[in-house]
Amino acid sequence: METINFSHQPLSFSLGTGWPLNEYSLYRSFTDIEKESLPKISVITPSYNNVQYIEQTIISVISQGYPNLEYIIIDGGSTDGSLDIIKKYAQWLSYWVSEPDKGMYDAINKGFAHSTGVILSWLNSDDVYLPWTFQIVAQIFLDLPNIEWLTSRTPLSLHQNCIPSIIPHHTPGFARTWFYRGCNLGNRNEFVNWIQQESTFWRRSLWEKSGRRVDDGLIMAGDFELWSRFWNYADLVSTQCPLGCFRSHSNQKTKQDMATYYSEAELILKKNKNKTINHRLLLWLARKLFQLSGRGGERLGSKLSFALFDDAINKWTYAYRHTI
Known about the structure:
By secondary structure, the chain is α/β, with parallel strands linked by helices. 31% of the residues lie in helices and 21% in strands.
């Protein structure tokens, strides 16, 4: 069993043999001025019978010492010992409940309905954040007040040995026209990379504009459907800094039913087919025009948007380039 010591600061914890941050002190002391300026981050964890991993998930959230955190766990009525672990950390939770629900996305919607933060995200009960996640996310949103949602171009996967590794796909960035053309869907020839859900954060203002809910009528691709609505209002900004780890294991819901995920995602893309160029000849012509003249990027394409850290001014800066 993993251990955590909350008897004193700094917080110390172990995430299992092989994890490179064993017994690593993650607590940092924030000044009063910093505490007042940091945005409230609300994180929702949906949970159901995931006793093997949920403690590591919880620890990865609360051990960061972020002073303006709202952490909510919505459990679907677990019977495997998960509740004992949730109760163990209850004093560090803003809200938790265990009751029957209609599935993961229903639980996530319940959690967000209780949330009050200005920056939102959800973390499944087998995934983990990195020790620096909240500090990086908060600073990017503070330094770049015009961005609406953020993700990482360096998605990590966490294997059974608890050692994270980079998911082996080069990600130049994320663009609206690419998304609607299926470039963020793993079964497509033009696949670039997934938008990693556990590395993605957004402002409440975007959540409100986009309907304030995850589609709980879907079984698997609720995140993909939410992204399809986010793109209607804002470009996705990416950072090279890793922000989350997707855990790969044999009982993983996504791994067991990728066919359903792809099927639901394809229907979502079909509904949005007019938001990008899908005709192969027209796409080739648009790309050729852009390549030869630099024209057409704004009208026919979209932006690749980046958050870049500038050492000279000690701040995050925004950059973009057009693509077709």
